[in-house]
């Protein structure tokens, strides 16, 4: 039985480094046994502290070699995956970055079982799915949610040109908001059903959300002003050319009343009032000829800029919709009127607080209002 202080300073340092850096929980446990024994703890005290058997403590305190950290690993854990050659591992890491369809498969994602089967045919080294998973974890891979992307449908050149032009306009509106305003415009829908988001729960048991799976929907159309984050959102039955035109007229009237409230003459709004730039997507009713004609006649101060195709990340109001939906997640509404009342408070009365510094591409998170 080793006595207290049997480790040299160098051995203690190596064991402490292994305790901090090792990914093997069994190895860390055995390192801790040696360090506790070196501090004068008895086998019984170590057993109770770590929560293992007396026999394990007695074995590793005597057989563990503090000069060979690798000897503290359980050799039984090495298993058959040691059959995997460096070439096998290199091929595995290359294949996992490929889409299965590129190799002629009909399925859309790799599992460890599919990887093991494919590599067995390709390399003639047969490993189980568990062994393949162990290799991937050692290489710092995890089984994570994938995210969808629009990049394959986007025109990079058009996006770059639009981004540069938009940056110039945003600089102008920050310097002279009384002369020029930029509004981001979009439509969104909010369901009466409970919106489920991830939440903490005990492993192996999903939380159950009470409430009826009610049907009902509230549609919203509106704009977000860039320089002060002013929001004007309107409830609609459905998004179409008529509702689009009617609500842009309302937005124009809001800007006009603001301008008149600062001591300007209403009749001079079209000549001296601020120019209003609307950034919006390419929905078909946004571009209807009769809508464009009526808009030019009724709201000459308004100008429409359409986003490049598949570029919602350039529309700042997407952050508002996402934050609002995250705010109401897991809430049960008894009627569309109750949902509409909350949405009005969040979107139009300033109760929704948003982390504006977050990238729109990542949607950000809502900060619950106090």
Task: Count the DSSP helices.
Answer: 13
Broad CATH class of the largest domain:
Alpha Beta
Low-confidence stretches: 364-370
* Tertiary shape: elongated
Estimate what percentage of residues fall within beta strands.
5-15%
In the CATH hierarchy, the architecture of the largest domain is 2-Layer Sandwich
Helix content: 40-55%
Q: What is the tally of beta strands?
A: 7
What summary fits the major beta sheet?
A: 5 strands, mixed
Q: What is the average per-residue confidence, as pLDDT, rounded to a whole number?
A: 86
Strand order of the largest sheet: 3-2-1-4-5
Briefly characterize the structure.
With 370 residues, the chain is α/β, with parallel strands linked by helices. The protein is 42% helix and 11% strand.
